[in-house]
User: Fold this.
Amino acid sequence: MDRLRSPEELEAKRRSIAESRDPEKPCITICDGTGCHAFGSGKVASAFKEEVEKQALESKIDIKVTGCHGFCERGPLIVIKPANIFYQRVAIKDIPEIISKTITKGEVIDRLLYTDNTGNKIIHENEVPFYKKQQRLVFGNNGYIDPNNIDDYLFLGGYSALSKALTSMSSEEIISQVKSSGLRGRGGGGFLTGMKWEFSRNAQGDIKYIICNCDEGDPGAYMDRSLMEGNPHSVLEGMIIGAYAIGCHEAYIYVRNEYPLAVKNAGIAIRQAEEYGFLGKDILGSGFDLAIRINRGGGAFVCGESSALMASLEGRAGEPRAKYVHATEKGLWNKPTVLNNVETLANIPLIIKHGADWFSKIGTRNSTGTKIFSLVGKINNTGLVEVPMGITLREIIYDIGGGIPNGKKFKAVQTGGPSGGCIPESLIDLPVDFDELTKVGSMMGSGGMIIMDEDTCMVDIANYFLSFLEGESCGKCIPCREGIKRMREILTAITEGKGREGDIELLEHLATTLENSSLCALGSSAANPVLTTIRYFRDEYEAHIRDKRCPAGVCKELTTYFINDKKCPGCGLCIKPCPTYAITSDGKGKPVILDQKKCIKCGSCYDVCKLGAIIRN
Amino acid sequence: MSIEVEQPEKKINSILEKYEHDKGLLVSILQDIQEEYNYLSKEAIMQISQGLDIPLSQVYSVATFYKAFSLKPRGRHVINVCLGTACHVRGAVRILEAIERELNIKSGDTTDDLRFTLETVNCVGACALGPVVVIDGEYSGQMKIDKVKPLLEKYS
Assistant:
């Protein structure tokens, strides 16, 4: 492939790709995102290819293995285009039937369809309730793209925003468009992207850098990886436009090493972009040069913080520094540096293509556009959802997420990762945007949304986040290093029944100190999980401290398991899973016996008993 | 025997050359070496320090800062129990405890026969399947305590 040397050559290339494709030819798109892959979609995809080969149908059917479609709960997912027939939980044994019935005869296979909560079978992808309320501007193309084939991206209009920016816009115009679009950073901070670009553009010096932050460290958040894995060119295009706008010629993608597929797909995308002339010297004949390199992170949560990330890029331990000088002036190697999150960058081509006005009409006044959330935890429809800013929590959790499994009661939603907060049921009609989440003590963060039900203990959750942050604190500043440790110790003591009067006030005091005196956001926001759980679930703390009781039955030291003799038929199902042989049979038809001395409270028996005969209290 | 001693040196040299002896790529260099030998030996760390012309203390500080690196040999199979929030609320800690009981080691340790190293990870992004255990890159989802033993028996 020769490099494309002008926008005209790009459009000619696009036409030739379109001409070579038959829009009526059936295409089976198979989601191979992390969720589906773990359900075995890789094997399903190979089996599809084999079957098509075996029946010599290559000229009649296309098979496309794509990145994440979002609806992880029902994986492996396939969508048959152009009719958009949606099949879920597809297994290898279903493949011959899909080809002989759906592809050849156009018949729909009932058992593979999604059934909604009223029992209706749904045929088309866009009619599935999970997708209906979403507005998938950034994420939606994943389903159409083989991430290792740049032509798929071009076919959908890819790199036309870059071509527009390079040929018809000055860097000031680009920055002004991004500014007036209102786009705010999707990685957590929520700073205006256009402002960041402007600061860096105006900073002194010839050498400047742009870095894409794909060090997604928030547990329970995986939208950045899914974008990088599924549609890497959209991120590259945003980066190239950004680099042109700020006047930089060297860029980096910083990826978590735990994301091998994101590393691989980004690498392939960079090579293809270089071959086509979207990277390298004289991009599309504009005279602008840019090289992008990939750096892998070493598994440190703090490296999501900008100055720590840059230290890591320089080959040092990822310790943050004080921020009286901003990275946009002195960042990587002390040069002006812009750090943008994956999702932020993937929004850029849309803004350039459709204009700032179009973008700013989506979402709310101060939080424009859409946001991708990962909806996980105790929720029926686990997956990635992209919604306009301002949608309510209720719509996300019930209309899209399908509510709480097993008839349990919704208790709280945790947003913003370990630095975020827990939002209680009473605030379920809260519109979700940057400012509203901050107002209730939480934050947007990178968009993790962990749903908790009545079986989740809020003190345990606070303890969990603090243990996480204790391990991830880099140790450079004392408030964070010592303060998190002390708070964690107090929380652990409370969960073990050793809580004392005054602990809650002490936690509040420590949390406020951390908020005011930590060097970076890891420490200052470590207060959030503690303060929000105290603010909204104080009664649970008090039950642990005063009554030595864990209302959710999670904290081991405060929980006892026993057998309800009236309900136990003595089936013995609980005997085998018990690791300490604490449960014994007292003969057929008689309730089993649980030896409290041997019981380690692992909960194995509770999990297997479907009759409610094991009581946890 | 002398060949075996020489080989790691050569391999590490070729990794250093692949990254053009760029100090800024220390993390990537260590990752490649870790992937090759499954841990960072004292000799390897010293060679990198010389090869990149940076103080040994700096290589050591980076090698001990990041979770991805180990200074001790690891087991033939690496178990990663996901302790992400979604897995946590679905009972991941109980799965971890079950594995600890089964192997008689604590998280972070390696069994004496070098069969398993048990580690935890903060999220593998397969939240729909939580709790998730990853062994040598293979995901096992919707884990239950009684699924632990049969799962471990698959690995020798």
